[in-house]
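Pilot study result, target chain (96 residues):
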Amino acid sequence: MDDPAVAVTMPSAKRDDYGLYGFVLHRGIRTVDVDMPGLPLAEVRSDTLDAMLPRLYVDGSSWWWGYALDFASEALDDHDGSIAAQLEEDLESEIG
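Predicted structure:
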């Protein structure tokens, strides 16, 4: 089975009240909401970890750039739902 590509949609082209732009990443049956500050990428993608760096929000959790990428990637990894389906099946068999 080929892995589906990640599609990106932007529900609104406007920044929210906090200066963030919202994006939705889609891959198969999975979606991830990402809110990104409206700043130059160089400011957001810094390699230094500083409490004053702007953060991205992935499904509501606040992350620096590199961690946000990892978190979003993991959330989209089970693109076909196989892990979720197996967990549900296991739970149903336990409950009986």
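One observation from the pilot: The mean pLDDT is 83. A full batch analysis is planned for the follow-on phase.
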